[in-house]
Fold this sequence. Notes:
Layout: H1 3-33, H2 37-40, H3 45-56, H4 58-62, H5 72-81, H6 89-115, H7 119-131, H8 146-159, H9 169-185, H10 192-201, H11 207-229, H12 241-255, E1 267-269, E2 273-275, H13 281-299, H14 302-323, H15 333-353, H16 356-370, H17 378-381, H18 387-400, E3 405-407, E4 429-431, H19 432-438
Antiparallel strand pairs: 1-2, 3-4
Amino acid sequence: MTDSTNTRTRGITALVIVGVLAAVISLGRIWLANHSALTEVVWAEDGVFPLCVEKAGFLTCLTDPFAGYLLVLPRLLAGLVALFPVAQWALVTNLLAALIAGLVSAGAFAVMRRFGTGRIVSVLVALLPVIAPIVGLEALNALGSTYMLLLYLATLIVAFPSPSRYAGWPATLLVGLLLLLTSLTIPLAGLLLLIIVVQALRRVIAWRAALIWIGAIVIGLIAQAITASGAAKPRDIVVGGDTLRSWVSAVPDSILTFWPGLHIGDFTLFDVFPITAVGVTGSLVIVAIGVIGLVAWIRGGDRRIGVAALLLSGLAYGFVPSVIGWANNRYFVVPCLLWAAALLVALDPWIRRTRAWVLGLIAVIIVVIWWPLIPASWFRATPAPSWSSEVARVEASCKADPGKSERIIFSPFWPPNWGDALSEPTHPNLPCLVVWKWN
């Protein structure tokens, strides 16, 4: 066996190990929080999307807007879920979500290794989407949140493109397909265009590859625009000082999830002394991230440009959805992942030189600090209602009156107001004639 074959075999083995480890961690954090969650929690969109397929068919639901835009990857996965008996949807969605997490983590590991980062940093960057504390609040192991994984991986790819010796049409087209899927799933992918153009101007990405990738993203954005213009219930967009302030104030708190328990806000010390938080804390943090990103960008170099791309795109990914609506913890997951990845890549030269026992001690300290948020949050892992009881309730109701229509509820007692904010066919309305087909 030649050296190149041995190297390729070791590389594939490492990819498989990282992918399996990520999938196990993704499932394990849910299981640690609630041992019944893997078989009893069908999380929000993870239920309503396959329910749409049951009612209206796969192709109709694939292009049906949700919150005013396309969400293609979760819709594709919903088509797979709908092939299974309804009683098994909880287990199937959790296993599929873990599989996607594993594939994305393996892809991130490959990207970082080919760029040239060390094994430790490459593994940590790859596992961030399943180990970061903020992920466990709501986004962990949810098919409806796979757009976060796509956005994370796509940003890593364009921020740290492979050296020319790895370039080729198969890789270029594969990345193009990933970028197309990402832009068809989340409009924020349009922000990747700037990074691609800059990398092409730097001749780090060949222009033929850059044009293919730009074209893929633009096609997705056109589809998103067409979908948004025809949505029955378009996304509410409210831009103002309040939404901007909500984003600014949420940035430092989202970063502090890396140290569970810390929070920036007013409090009373020793139940006697009132302490007022510095009002400009959020603004200072944002400015600091932006300045560091811009300085790294100006100084140049592949590593610095990549770090800058992660820092600045993280700001943009949190800013856009928060300011046009309202700050939500989901909007800070990808920024936190990218900022943590940027820190790891910046520290990579130091980590390579550091003794193993020092790194081991640091790892133990991080695990101890993170442990309170290692299990998924009660909100994410508590069956509300349990899937088996909800399926039994609907079946019993429809058996009593086959001509009626039910409204099924998914965890966490979702959608609110019986789905008034949703429109058919992506709606919890469930004709009993569909329920009879379950049997």
